[in-house]
Amino acid sequence: MAEDKELKRKRKRKEKQAQRRAAKDRAVKVYRTEELSSLFTQYLNAGQFDAAWLVAQKLRKSSPTAPLVYEMLYLCGVYSGNRERLYEALRFGFEHGHIKAKSSLVHLLALADYYNNVHLMEQVLETLETKKSSFVGKLEKKEREKLAEVKQRLSARQAHREKQAGQPPPPSPPVATKEAEAPHMAETQDVGAEEGNGREPASRKPEDSLKVSVHAEIDPHPLLDVLQAGMAAPKERLDVALEALQVSFQSTYDELLCLSTLTDVDSYWYQQETARKVMKHFRGRAILADEVGLGKTIEACLVLKEYMVRGLVKKALILVPSALVNQWQAELRDKFGLHFVSTNDDLFKQDPAGFWKQPLVVASLQTARTARHFDAVTSRFDDLVIVDEAHHLKNHTTANWKLVNNLHKTFLLLLTATPVQNNLEELYNLVTLLKPGHLQTRKAFKEQFVARGNPFDPINRDKLRALLQEVMVRNTRSVAQVQLPPRFATTVQVEPSSAEKAFDEAVHAFVRHEAAQSASGLLKQQLRKVLEAAGSSPYAAAGLLENLARHGNGLGRQAASLAKEARSLHEMAKARRVVELVRAIAEPVILFVNYRATLEALRQMFAKRGVDHVVFTGGMTNEQKKEAVETFRKGRRVFLSTGTGGEGHNLQFCHTLINYDLPWNPMEIEQRIGRLHRIGQRHPVQVYNFCAAGSIEERILDVLDRKINMFELVVGEIDMILGRLQGEKEFAEMVFDLWVTHGDEASREKAFEALATRLKKARTAYEKTKALDEKLFQDDFGT
Amino acid sequence: MDSQERVLRFAQRFVECFGGVTEREGQALKVLLPSQLAQSLELPEETAFGEGQMPLPLGSPVLDRMIHAATASPPVVFGQISTEYLKKAGFAQILLRDFSFPNSRVSLGQTADTRTTYLLLYAHYTALSDERKEGQVQVAVQEKTGAVVEGFEDNWIWFPCTFFDPDNVPAHFPKDISSAVQAGLIRAKALALQDLADFIESMHRRLRRDVRHTREYYQALEKEMTAGLNHPTLGEAQKAERLTKIRALPDEAARKIEDLQRKYEIRLTVRPSGAIRLLVGVVQAMVTVQHRQWQRMVSLFWNPVTRAFDPLVCESCGASMHTVYCRAEDGRIALCCRDCG
C-alpha cells in the first residue's frame, strides 16, 4: 500500500513536472514568437528584407504551421519583389491552408507555371474549381485571363503527354473525392486518390526515384592559413571582401561576363542574344543554324567562353573540317584568349594518346572518326563539344555521326547553315544527336512529318517548327539586319617566260611519272604540294623538291636536278605583272602568297622597284603582327602576307585583294577573301586572281569562277556547295588526280568539264536547299 | 540599385580600403591608387571609371582583379561584444528548457561570469551543375568547444561591438581553432544545401524527365526494330546486322543516361570568405551529470546574445547537440548525440 502511494506520488510528480515543462515550452515559444515577430517588424520597416526573411524562416522552424509564418513570408516576398520568395511563401500558405484570397491562388498558379511545377498547378486549379466558395475576393480581368491561359496550356500539355504515352486524353477536370482536408503536395500521386476520376493511375517508373548526385567539399585551408599566420584585418576589409563576392555572383545569364575579355571581337546583338538563349533556354544543347556569314563561330565561342568564365566548362572538344582547324585554333587564341591544341600540332603526331588527354582540343573530324583515334576520342568526358559544319553529320550511318553520337558530353553545339540539305531525315539525325527522342523514333517522325514522295516538304509543319524551336536558333540576314557589299573577281592571266614554262613542264612530267609509279598516299601528297608550289613560284617549288631529293633514289636524283633548275631561274613574269597592277590601283592592297620563298622573292622585287609595302607572316610574334597591321592601316600601299595573314585581325578597312598564287582548296581562297569580305566591310570587294596561262590554277579558276561564280557567293556558301560533291575526297585531291591521270590536253579538258558540271549541279542543289530552309524556318527561329 | 552603380560603389570602397583616394563625379569615379595597388590592377595610378571613362562591366579583367585582390585571403576581424547585464539567476529553468538528458540526471552547481570567444564564419558556396548558383551563409561557432550556436549570427549586431585594431588584438583568443573552423564549415555546407534545395530539386526533376524521355525513346526504338525483324524481305545477313544493333541499344541508352547524370550532378564547394572573432562575456555554469553509477562535471556557457546555453558537442562525432545521451566508456561518461549514443 505504501508502495502504491509512493508510486502514485512519483507519477503525479512526473506529470506535474511534464506539465510545467510543457507550460514553460509554451511560454518560451510564445516569448520567442513575440520576440521574433518584433524583430521581423523592425527589419521589414528598415527595408532589411533578407534579415526579415531569415527571421520568418526561424519562426517557421519552431512553429511550422502558424498563420503568422505565412504572413511574414508573404510580406517579405511582396516587399522585396523577390519572385522565389513569394513562390515559397504562397506554396507554404497553400500547403497549410493559410491562403484565403482567390487572387493569391491565381498568383500561386502563375508562379507554379513559371517554375514549371505541373503538379502544383493541377492541385491549385483543382482547389480553385472545387472550393471556390472557401476563398474570398473577386478575380480581376487580368487574373481571369491568366487562369484561362494556364488551364488551356495545362490541358494541351496533358493531352500531348497522354497521346505520347498512347493513352486517351483526360476527361474534363476531375472532381476531388476529399473536401475536408487541405490539399497535400506530393511528388507522386497516390493510386487510391485517383481511382474513380476516370484517369489511369500513374505507375511508378524507375527514373522517378532518380536523384542527382551532390558532391560537396569544404575547403578550410584559406582561413586556417590566415589564422596560423596570426593576421588580423580591419572591419572595412571584411566588408569589402563580402561585397566583392556579392558583386561577383554569376547566377543569371542576363549579362555575359566574357564580353570584356574578348580581343578584337565585334559581337553583334543577335550573337549575344543567341549565346544567352543557348545557355538559358536550351541549357547548352542546340543547333546554331544562322545563315552563312552571320558568325556562328563567334556565337559558339561566346557560349564556350562564357561557360568557362563561370566554371561550367573545363574540357572542350571542337570538331571541324580539316581545312578549318588552323583557323579555329587561331581565332580561339587571338580573340578569345583560349589555347587549344590541334591535330595540326606536333604533339598530335608525336604522342596521339597524350594529345587526346588534353583538356582543350580542336580536331579534324576526318581524323577523329578514324578507327585509329575513335576509341581515344570517345573515351573523353567533355563538358562541351562543338561541331562545325555539322551538315557532315546528316547521315546516321556515317562514321561522322557515329563518332559524335558516341562522345561523352554535357553540352553540345552543332553549327550548320543548312540543317536540311536533301531531306527532313537529315534534320532528324542532327536533333537526335542533341536530344534522343525529341523527335521520337525515325519511323514515328516520318509518319508524322514526312509526306510520301516528297522528303523535302514537311506535313504538320507547325508542330515540327514548335519542336525545332526548342533546340535550334537560326538568325537570318534580314532579322539580324546585316548586309554585306558585293564582291567581284578578275582573273589576271600571265604568260610565263620560256624558262619558267620549261621548268613547269619538267615538274609536271616528273610529278605525273612518280604519281603513276607509286601507291603511297604520303608521296602523292608531297607531289601534289610540289605542283602547288610550282604554281606559286620556282623558288617555292625548289624547297619542296630539295626535301624529295633526300630520298636518294631515282626520284631523289630527278628532284635534286629540278631543284637546281628552279634556283637558277631569276625571272618571275607574274611578279612583274603584280607590280604593274599595284601601281595602277590607287588604294591599299592586300597581297596573299602561300609560300615564304615566293613572299621573299616578291619582297625583294618590291624593295628594288620602290613599292611601299609591309610584310606579315605566320612566324611573327603577336606584337609584330599587330604592328604590321597598324602600319598598313596608317598608309602603306601593300600588305604582303602569307596565307595565314590577318587571321584574327581586322582588315576590313581594305577592299582590294590580290591572290598572287591560288590555293587548290577553295575554302582557303574563301578564307583569304573572308579577311576583307565580312561584317564591317563597307565597300564592294575586288579580288584579282593571278595565274599562269595553261596552268592548273587557271583550270581551277575556270571551274570555280566561270562555272559556279564562286566569287559572287556569300562568304561560306562555297563550302556548302563543295560539301555536296560525291565522295569524301577534298577538292584539291580531286584536281590532282585529274591532272596526273589525264596526260593529254583533250582528256584533261574533258575531265575538268565533268568536274565543273558536278559543281554546277551541287550549286543548284544548294540553292534548292537554301529555298527549303527559308521556307521551313522562315524568320521565326532567331533570337 | 542598377548593376553599374553597384559596381562603382564597390570599386570606390575597394580603392579606399586599400589605401587609395576616390572622388565621385556623377556616374564617374576618379581614383588615385597607391603604386603597389596600381601595379596589381595593371592600371595607371590616376584613373577614372564609369560614364565617359574606363568602363567597369561585370566580367571585365579590371573588376576581376579587384575582386581577386579583395577575396584572395579571407580577412579575420577581432572584436568584443559588451553586455550591460549578465543573467544572475534562473539557470536551472533555462537548463531544463535548453537541454534534454534522456538517460541521465543533471543538477546545476555553481555559476560564474567569465569570457569566451566566438567565431562568426562567413562562407561562400558555389554549386555547379549545368548551371551555376552561388551564395553566402553565416555560421557562429563557440571557439572553445566547437559548438555551432544558432541565432548568434543574426543577433550579435544588436549588441555594442568594438573592433580591435589589427595591431592591438588582446591575447584572449585561442591560437588553434581548427576544429571550430571545421565545425563551422560543416554547418555552412548544410545551410548551403538548404539554400540550394530548390535548385537541387529542379536538377532532380530535369534529370528524371530527361532520363524518362531517353528510356522511352530507346524502348520505342527497340520495339520498332524488333518488329521490323519480321519483315518478309529481310535477308539473313540483314537480320543478323539488325539484331546486333538491337543488342547494342541498351548500352547506348546507358551511355546517354550516364551523360545525363554527369550533366546534372551538382558539385558544391564551400569556402570561408571571412570571419569575425568576438570576445563575449558569458556565464559559465557547472553542471553535474549522473549516469548510473558515474558522475561527471560539465561546463555550460550561457550566452547573452542568444539568451540561451550554447549547445554541447558530441564527443564522438563533433556535432552540436541539445539532447545529450550519456554513454559509459572506460569508467567515465562520454556525452554523445542520439546517433552516437
UniProtKB/TrEMBL annotation, chain A:
At the top level of its lineage, which domain of life is listed? Bacteria
Q: Which residues form the Helicase C-terminal domain?
A: 577-721
Name residues in a coiled coil. Answer: 111-145
Which SUPFAM superfamilies does its entry note? P-loop containing nucleoside triphosphate hydrolases
Provide ranges: composition bias, Basic and acidic residues.
Answer: 196-210
- Renumbered to this chain, region (Disordered) spans 1-22, 147-210
Q: Which GO terms describe its molecular function?
A: ATP binding; helicase activity; hydrolase activity
Q: Which CDD domains match?
A: DEXDc_RapA (cd18011), SF2_C_SNF (cd18793)
Q: What sequence ranges are listed for the domain Helicase ATP-binding?
A: 277-437
Which PROSITE patterns does the record match to this protein? HELICASE_ATP_BIND_1 (PS51192), HELICASE_CTER (PS51194)
One Pfam family from the UniProt entry? Answer: SNF2-rel_dom
InterPro entries per record: DEXDc_RapA, Helicase_ATP-bd, Helicase_C-like, P-loop_NTPase, SNF2-like_sf, SNF2/RAD54-like_C, SNF2_N
Which UniProt keyword terms apply here? ATP-binding, Coiled coil, Helicase, Hydrolase, Nucleotide-binding
Name of the protein in its database record: DEAD/DEAH box helicase
UniProtKB/TrEMBL annotation, chain B:
Name of the protein in question: Uncharacterized protein
Q: What is the lineage of its organism?
A: Bacteria, Pseudomonadati, Thermodesulfobacteriota, Syntrophobacteria, Syntrophobacterales
